[in-house]
Design a protein that fits this description.
globular; D-Maltodextrin-Binding Protein, domain 2; 2 domains; five-stranded mixed sheet
């Protein structure tokens, strides 16, 4: 009788453990993305297609927004947990809102300043953009920051340029083809898609490769990352680690598979109807993706230097960069996967 009672007790505890395990596996996290169709955010979307979030014990809901500023607003407002967006927001808001990046998936920003085919005759340099309308994903987004930096660097008053939100995907291509903006900050696959239709497409500045990024910024400049409020990370270390594990595993997968295999895993609505041009854009973009997920301190410093030049408030804020990112979760992911720690 006593043995039966003990067995039943252990059986009940085992069932409870299983139930608890299921509950942990269904932990829900909402990720706000500033333009899911942009290749700069591919690791976030690919992790979902590969099932990496589920493997890490998460039920992830991805909410797509027109630009990074809107995704950030969702997290600050509490309707989403984590942003898949550009690290520069963590620096830009450091003095007002503690934000922390915990896994970086883009080594370069991937921005290109492109001239609308309908206005290519009138615009030959960044200086020619004074008094013109220039498209960005959304005002206040990283594309907007980059535009203002380029304008200031080339002696153009950013306030003299009309900034228009045109998104990053089909809407951006349409705005450029229609000529409703004279130029735009674009990313792939939109740049390659537009170039496929306009062989003489004029690009005034490009950060899609290491060489071009170094020319523009003087150093590597981290782009896309998962980041959120520092308080959320402190309260949800398990979820933060799980998200990091998923992205690091996805980056490892990207660099061990062909562009064709990567494209085959992406949702059709993100690839679009022209698979050949998407594939060409993807081939151009793959070197941009991090191999480690780790933030390079020099890259973070480059972001601060850029903002310090163009935003006086940041230059005066004495920002502690060490509070805008952490490599702790990436290091733990590497240990778990037996990856090189360097």
């Amino acid at each position: 009788m006593k043995d039966n009672l003990i067995r039943r007790t252990f059986a009940a505890l085992g069932a409870l453990a299983l139930m608890t395990g299921v509950a942990v596996a269904q932990t829900k996290v909402t990720i706000a993305v500033g333009g899911a169709g942009c290749l700069c955010y591919l690791p976030t979307m690919l992790a979902e297609s590969l099932g990496e979030y589920k493997k890490a014990g998460l039920a992830v809901e991805i909410v797509d927004f027109k630009g990074g500023s809107q995704a950030l607003t969702a997290v600050i407002g509490g309707s989403a947990d984590v942003v898949s967006g550009y690290f520069d927001h963590c620096v830009n808001l450091a003095a007002r809102q503690p934000l922390e990046a915990f896994v970086v998936y883009d080594r370069y920003p991937g921005f290109a300043l492109v001239v609308s085919p309908k206005h290519s005759g009138a615009i030959n340099s960044i200086k020619d953009l004074a008094g013109k309308k220039v498209g960005v994903s959304a005002p206040g987004s990283s594309t907007d920051f980059f535009l203002k930096y380029l304008l200031s660097k080339n002696g153009v008053d950013p306030n003299s340029v009309g900034v228009i939100g045109i998104g990053l995907s089909a809407t951006a291509v349409a705005a450029m083809e229609q000529g409703s903006v004279e130029a735009a900050i674009m990313l792939d696959p939109s740049v390659t898609l537009l170039q496929g239709k306009n062989k003489d497409l004029k690009i005034l500045s490009d950060t899609r490769t290491q060489k071009d990024t170094l020319a523009v910024f003087g150093g590597e400049y981290p782009g896309g990352a998962l980041y959120t409020k520092s308080g959320w990370i402190a309260a949800h270390p398990t979820e933060t680690q799980a998200l990091t594990n998923a992205i690091v595993a996805t980056l490892k997968w990207i660099h061990s598979h062909t562009p064709e295999e990567i494209m085959a895993k992406m949702p059709d609505n993100l690839v679009g109807p022209d698979k050949a041009l998407y594939l060409a854009a993807l081939k151009n973009t793959i070197p941009m993706y991090s191999t480690t997920g780790r933030m390079d301190p020099k890259g973070a410093a480059a972001v601060l230097a850029v903002f310090s030049q163009s935003v006086p408030e940041i230059a005066k804020a004495n920002i502690d960069l060490s509070k805008t990112y952490t490599n702790k979760f990436v290091d733990q992911a590497h240990q778990k996967m037996g990856m090189n720690q360097k």
